[in-house]
Each structure stands twice: as structure tokens, then as C-alpha cells.
Amino acid sequence: MPATIPVPPDLLLPTLVDLVQIPSVNPGFSGGTGEAELAVYCATCLREAGLDVEVQEVAPGRTNVVGVLRGRGDGPSLMLLGHLDTEAPGELRAPFVARREKGKLYGLGSADMKAGLSTMLWSAMILAETGLKLGGDLLVALVVDQKIGSQGTRALLERYRPQAALVCECTGLSVGWLHAGSAVLEIETQRSRGSNPVTQMARVVLGLDELDRRLASQPTPEGLGPPSFRPTAIFSAAEWGSQPRQCRLRAERRLLPGEAESQAEAELTSLLKGLAGGDPAFRARLAPSQTASRPAYHHPPTSPLLAVLEQAVARTTDLPARRSAHPGWTDAALLQAAGVPALVFGPAGEAGDEEWVAEDSLGLAAEVLVEVALSWCHAS
């Protein structure tokens, strides 16, 4: 395999600045204008690098972008996956201004996940410029809607099934090989025999609190933290001074690898049955939820992709590769469920109220992606 190809961090910074300054708030959030402008920018970068580019419409005005660096056809393919959408800016004063300070770049989406997008774009451009021929195709997939329903990745998997994938979220240059999932369930209490559905729902909340404490006492696997079952929203509708006919509560069950939504449903059904047993007026049921549940993810510890990525990290950084539990949910879970081996890897950064990415990690992350592509896709 060719020697390591160095990638100066300053090479990526102008691209990251551009990405942060292009608003791409998921339109499912209040005031979100969507990913269209950012999709056009990324598609242009990939076309100018010589990749074949497909624009895949997912919903009106919302498109995935897939760039393909064609290989010889005698090696396995690799997909680099990232999402175009960001959270809403909340109370940030200048969310779309990229601010540099003490080796960090700040701005909405800088860590989640425009830093990862910049490493994906540049690793593909560098590979295209070297003239090295990969055995398998390298796909650079930029998808919409990861923040709400992952419509982009679901549509992508209907069209593409690579032999392996890297989801380029920020991991601090560690190898993200597992993360938790979530099941979103809704409970509805109803007025019956003069009972107040809001009062009845208060009993459900207390029962959820007790269930959450029991779950929290379980052993913590793989550094993920315990499962949980917590209310996230409660609402009812009634005229002032009148009693509502029903009350609805939304609760989120944190799922660990090996747990499924059906387990959360069974736990909640058991809770409601216990509450009804001591009160003939208690009326509650599981109601259909409009929010999609998301599976947990755990990559096999002996997979070939894991070995290739860890070798690339060690070779690039001169340090042993670290495995980590990713703190948030990623589309790696959907890839893995579809039979595509996937890992999470990217630069150092932190999402939250004020996002930032470490500038000196950008070049290293891009170098690792180049190394993985050369090795996995059998470069010559």
C-alpha cells in the first residue's frame, strides 16, 4: 500500500468555514430552511474533483448527494457517510458565523457534523488527485434528515449497499463501535367514571420514575451507561375550567445493544396493567407515536473493517487506536441493520450549546479516511 499521504489541517479549514456559514437547519425544526444550499455546495466540490455525482431526491426540496470515485471493479467498496442537517440554533447569537479561537472553530453544526463533512470531501478529493486506482468504488454520501427521521439514509440504502461504511461524526479520532438507541412511546389516559385523566397520568409519571430507577441499577455495559425510561412531553386539551377527555404523555426508553422496542413496550404495558389493577376507573393505553424509534448499535469486535480502521489510526497518529462508545445516535445503526458493516470515526469536537471542533484534528481525520480507503478498497 502507498505511504501515508499527509493532509495539512489548513487545507480543510476554508471548506469547513464555508460549510458552517451555509445554513442547513432541518426543516422539521422551527425556522429550519433545509439542506438544499449545502447539498449544492457539496455536489459542486465532488464534481470539480472528478467524481460521478448523483442527486437523490428524498422529499420535495430535500436531496441526498452521492459522489462516486470509480475503482477498477476488483475490490470491495467503501462509503463515507455524513448528514447535511443541523439542529436549530436556539439562542445562539451568530450561529452561521465560523469563529476561530485558540485552535478551535466554533459555529452551529461545526462538530455535528460539518467537520466530518469537510474530512469526507477532502479525502475524496485527495484520492482523486493522486491518480492511485482503487479496486472498489469509494462513495461519499451526504444525506438529509438525520436529526429527525433519517429519511436520507433510509432512501440511500434503497439505492446503495456498499461492502463497508464509515460514519464521519466527531469521535476525537477514536473508533466509535457502539452507541445506545431509543424507543419513543406514547401513553394516553382517558376520562372514565368521573376520573381526571391528568391525575391518572400523574400516576403514570410516578410509575415511570420508579421503572427508571430500577433500570438505572442494572450493570453498565461497555461504558454506555444504563438504560432509562423518562417522560419527555405531556399534553392535554380542554376548555378553561373543564375537565379534559384525555391526556397524552411521550416517553423515551434508552435502548442498549441487544434491546428492542418490543421490550420497552412490554415494560410499559406491565406498568399500566399494574396501575389499572388497583383502580377500576383507571383507563390508559399505548397510543401510536409519530416519532420514529432508533435501534442501538454495536459493531462486531473482530470484524475486518475494525482492524483496517484501527491500523489506519495507529499508522497516521503514531498512537494505539482507542475504541469508544459514541455519546449520540448515528446512522451507523441503520447501516448495520441493513447488513453494511459500519463504524463511526471523525475529528475532535463537541456538540451542545456552543459547538466547536479542534482544528488540528481535521487533517489527521482526513488522513485516516484516505488510509482506510487505500487499504479497504485495495489500491494499487
Please provide a brief summary of the model:
By secondary structure, this protein is of the alpha+beta class. It has helices spanning 9-21, 36-48, 110-130, 151-159, 197-216, 261-277, 304-317, 332-337, 360-376; strands at 52-59, 62-69, 78-83, 99-101, 104-106, 138-143, 165-167, 175-179, 181-190, 228-236, 246-255, 284-287, 297-298, 323-325, 342-344, 349-350, 356-358.
Structure overview:
The protein is α+β, with helices and mostly antiparallel strands and 380 residues long. The chain has 2 domains: 9-179 and 296-376, Aminopeptidase, CATH 3.40.630; 182-287, Alpha-Beta Plaits (2-Layer Sandwich), CATH 3.30.70.360. Helix content is 34%, strand content 23%. It is built from 9 helices and 17 strands. The chain has helices spanning 9-21, 36-48, 110-130, 151-159, 197-216, 261-277, 304-317, 332-337, 360-376; strands at residues 52-59, 62-69, 78-83, 99-101, 104-106, 138-143, 165-167, 175-179, 181-190, 228-236, 246-255, 284-287, 297-298, 323-325, 342-344, 349-350, 356-358. Strands 1-2-6-3-7-15 form a 6-stranded mixed beta sheet, with helices on both faces. A 4-stranded antiparallel beta sheet has the order 4-5-17-16. α1 (9-21) crosses α9 (360-376). The chain is elongated.
